[in-house]
Each structure stands twice: as C-alpha cells, then as structure tokens.
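Box 3.1. Reading complex inputs
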Amino acid sequence: MIKKSLSEIIQPIEIELSEFNKLFKKSLKSKVTLLELITRYIHKQKGKKIRPLLVLLSSKLSGGINERSFRGASLVELLHTATLIHDDVVDNAETRRGFPSINAVWKNKIAVLLGDYFLARGLMLAVDGKDFDFLSVITNTVRRMSEGELLQINKTRKLNIDEETYFRIISDKTASLLSTCCEIGARASTDNEEIIGSMRMFGENLGIAFQIRDDILDFIGTKKVFGKPLGGDIKEKKITLPLIYALKEAPEEERKSILRSIKKGAGNAEVDEVISFVKKYDGINYADSIAKEYTNRAVNNLKIFEESDSRTSLESLVAFVVERKN
Amino acid sequence: MIKKSLSEIIQPIEIELSEFNKLFKKSLKSKVTLLELITRYIHKQKGKKIRPLLVLLSSKLSGGINERSFRGASLVELLHTATLIHDDVVDNAETRRGFPSINAVWKNKIAVLLGDYFLARGLMLAVDGKDFDFLSVITNTVRRMSEGELLQINKTRKLNIDEETYFRIISDKTASLLSTCCEIGARASTDNEEIIGSMRMFGENLGIAFQIRDDILDFIGTKKVFGKPLGGDIKEKKITLPLIYALKEAPEEERKSILRSIKKGAGNAEVDEVISFVKKYDGINYADSIAKEYTNRAVNNLKIFEESDSRTSLESLVAFVVERKN
C-alpha cells in the first residue's frame, strides 16, 4: 500500500528524525557571530530534509538506527547544505526555498567560504566518530558532484549532449548524493555488502528518476511561485533528456533550426518553440518512460528486504518523486 | 649557517621534490576535457610549492621520506590550490601569480566547482591511502581556514579588531595550513607525539610570522608588478597588526579621525595618511618585533632535533619568510 504524503512516509522514523533535527542544530554552533546568524537563517527555511530521511529509513531497513546513523544523516545534510550554497553562487540564484539566497543576502564572498565551512564541519563529524567508511563514500561523492557539474557546463557550451553524456552528468551531479545517503544509512547498520550494494543502487536509481522528472518539469510544469520558472533550462542552454530525444527524432532541418534558437539565447518566444518541438517529437513521453524504468529498478532493489513499514516508506518515496508536480 | 636562497633550502629534498611534481601532475588526470585544460593552466603557473616543500622537509627531519610523505605533500598542495581558487572568487581577484585568475578566465561558476573538485581529490588521496590521521588534521584545517576568513570579514565590517582577534584570525586563516604541512610531514614518518607536536608548533609559529610580515608589507612594500598593491588592505578596510598597535597608541582624537578615513573608503590620499599614521605611532616596528618573536619560537621548536641539513633548511625558511620584500 503506497503512502501518499511525506508525513506518512516519515512515520517509521518520526521520533528519530526530530532527534536528528535537534542534534543537527546543536552541531552547527559557532563562536563566530556571523556564522551563528547565517546558520539560524538557514534553519528558518526548513528544507524537506529528504536526505537525512533517506539515511534514517535506509538505516532502519538495513538493521536498525544507531549513533552512526545520526552522524551519517548530519553529514549528508551538511554536505547538501554546502552544495546548495555553492550551487546558488554557480547559478547566480537569487532565491532558495522562497527566501533570498545566501549569496543574495551576504554576497558570493561569504557564500563560497560558508560552503567550504559546512563541508568541513560535515567531514569532521565523520572524522571525530571514526566513520572512515563514510569518509571514503562522501569524498568520492564530492568529487562526482563537482565533476558532473563541470562536465555539464563544458557540454552546455558546445550544445552537444548525447544520451550517454546526459546519464553520466545526472548520475554524477544528482544521483551520487542520494545513493550516498542510502549507502551510508546501510553502512551505519550492517557490514553485509549485499545489503549495502542494494541500498546504494536503490539511491542511484531513485536519483536518476528524480533528475529526469526534474528535467521533464522544465517543459510541462506550471509556473511556480518559488523555484525555477518553466523553460529555465532552455534559457540556460541545458540540453536534457526530453530535448535530446526530440532532437534525435526530428528531421535534420528542424533540428538545426531549434539548435539555432537555443544558441542565440532563448527568449519567451523561443522557449515556447522548443517546448512545442519537444512535445511534437514525443520527448516528454520518452523521458517519462525512462524515468519509470529507473523507478522500477529502484523498487526492485528493495526486494531483498522483507516487507516492512520502512520498506513501504522507501517505495512510496519513489512514487512520490516521479509523480511530483513541482 | 643560514641558507640564502630557495634553491639552497630545497637541496636536502631536491630529488624527492621533483618526484613529487611528477606524481602530483599524474594525480590530476581527468576524463573531463575542461578539467584537463584548467589543470594544465594551473601547472603552467608553477607556484613556489612552499607547502609540499614543508611537508617533505618535515618528513625527512622526523624520520625519513616515504610513500605517505608524498601523499601528504599532494594533499596539502591540492587543498592549497583549492583555497587559492576560492579565495580569488572571494576577493574578486583578477590575477594570480601574474596570470589571469581562474575566475577571471572561466568565471566564478567554474572557479567554485573547481575548488570543490580539488579539495575532494585531495581528500580522496588520503582516503585511498588509508591516511586517516591526515584526514583528521586536514578537515579541521579546512574548517579553521574558512572560519578564520569569515571572522575577518565579520570584523572588517565593524572596523573593530583587537590584537587577540587579529591573532585568532591569522592563526586560523594562514598558520593552520602551514602547521598542517609540518604536522602531516612528521606524521608520515613517526608516531612520536613529541616530534609531531614540535613540528606542528614550528609550522604554526612560522605561519604567524609569515602573515605578520605579509601585513607589514602592505605598509612598507614597494609597488609590485604582480600581487596586491601597497595599501590594499587599507582600501579593503582590513585592520592588521601595525594599524591595531598605532590605533592603541594614538590619542583618541587622531584615532577617530583615522577610522573615519578608513570607513569612508580610502583613496590614495587616505592610504598615504594611514601609512604615515602607522609609522608615526611605531606600528611597523612593533609588528616587526612580534614577528621576530614568532620566528624565534619557530627556530626553538626545531631544537629537539640534532643539527642536520634538513634542520638548517627549515631554519633558513624561517629567515626567508621574515626578510622577504614582497
């Protein structure tokens, strides 16, 4: 029975998640008043905390939540916070979760240092807890995330991304962190490599489905109050799966004309043109079908576990991801 | 007998340093062409490699250079490269070592990601080599460096820095990395905590002397072809030791007037005014005497070792640091 809301999904670890929230806040205390100020600003925004949720659910399913699970959850949330802050500098974003972004309020200067600081604090948690297995996973993830984004920027300039490159990019920049959450959650509770491998793959497949859905929403989403507007990727010349497929299916002439529109810097008229083009050549349905394939894989990765409330929560999270409208 | 030039200082580890250079280049290979391109650009600039030099000399002095010493040297150089790239974003710097900075050529976007990438690559070296002792030292250093810079920004805005805060800032933002170089070099070769502690303190004292000298040069340096111009700190409202002392010594009236000049945003006339003020109240001599105190401490930290070519090189490096003219 699939759970329909995030509050139902959270149920098996509700107490632990609120325990985590307390610990997490405490772990960010600093003697530097500017840091205290910014940290409080970030807490006020209350993100969905999907990553700690993944760690704790994976940990519960793999053997039970313990002290290491909490450290793992804090570690990934700190890393996630660090990358969001750096991403907002990278993208020149002015808002985040409906609040002005850190770079908008405190300038790039502070945002860059703050990201480094949060990353270091996260790594220190693992060092202090002697969670060397976490460190190995997490440092590789930091490398993959930055390398994935750099690859995307590199390819975006040339407007040539094939499906293989697309998957490499989204696997590195998005799926790697979700995969790490699930792997760390499992490692906190077991040393059974089959379980750890299954949870890692679950996270990877979930992450890929998540990013494809995100990319689809750029073409079919409704205008959002918060978050990026429809066609944002097109304006930034990011070529994602729906468009890659349409470009492959379209006749040479039309293909070239669309690429010219994107290249010259799309305004609203060009965005509409590209969206119609993608729909005409079935790019949305194709991307949808691929996303479903990855969600099926993710659900299958959980089959090694007996049915349980935690397993249902993770299955529901998969459904939640691909059905979301924003 | 103090060595007068960097090439003499390098002597005891000349072969190892060139071995390091080869390994370091190799360790940065990437499949992403943009990364290859930027990495080659950085190699072309040939920094002085003071930090790997410190690691290798410390290692040689503490027991002998081995595989871990090389990994330690690569680790600190990668971390240093990462922080330089991020610092140039933080400072909006347009040049670095006489070349256009990464952010100037490839924009902030790429510079932020690249810094993260180099940091991750460095940490991965330690993870792969199972140098967990290095990881513990290095993550704390990343925290200290970012926290130190954030503290400086925080205080700069308010124009109120006392001597205690000044030392906290320079210890965190500058001395921590030099201290880490020496500690990691020692740890690579010995588990004798007395030796490790002495090398750590040597690096810390060297780093503090280095930064005080750097801050003095802002008042008495000659205009440089490369690097920051005379009075750069004053224009950025950074209050450093010579000025802190002069402000303490001057009568209330004059003190207020100087602070007003700095606050309103110093042009060349105000810079000259501040420099004269600092000289009048003996700020340069005071800072000089403090720097000397720290270099004496550093040289004393080496007294636990027998005399040797490596010890002489480290002693000479200390002299080199406080006598440098730019």
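In summary: The radius of gyration of chain B is 20 Å.
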